[in-house]
Amino acid sequence: MTEVSIILLPAAAHRVAVIAEKQGVPAILRLSVEGGGCSGFQYKFGMADAVEDEDTVAEEAGVKLAVDAVSLDLVRGSAVDFVESLGGKHFEVTNPNAASGCGCGTSFSV
Predict the structure, then answer these.
(1) pTM
(2) Fewer CB atoms < 10 Å away: N or C end of the chain?
(3) Which domain holds residue 77?
(4) In a domain? residue 1
């Protein structure tokens, strides 16, 4: 059985498709991990023009999620969702590698 590196959930795929259509860009969401944030690492999301050769790609309903090799080590096994709540709308990463997180949901430690 093949290990699933990362999953793009339907709500996130739908949101990316809407953004891509409005901006007239490809439906590719890039997830990267950078140092910083209140817990040591933080997630960074952005629309991408293309998938790079070293990227790992998850696909849902024709929408792609691209993750670079360095970031993948920190988010392997994660699921990316889009959540709408009283607190606002945001992409959310459920990361099994995170030892702790912060209240904002965009910062974590391993």
Answers:
(1) 0.86
(2) N
(3) 6-109
(4) no
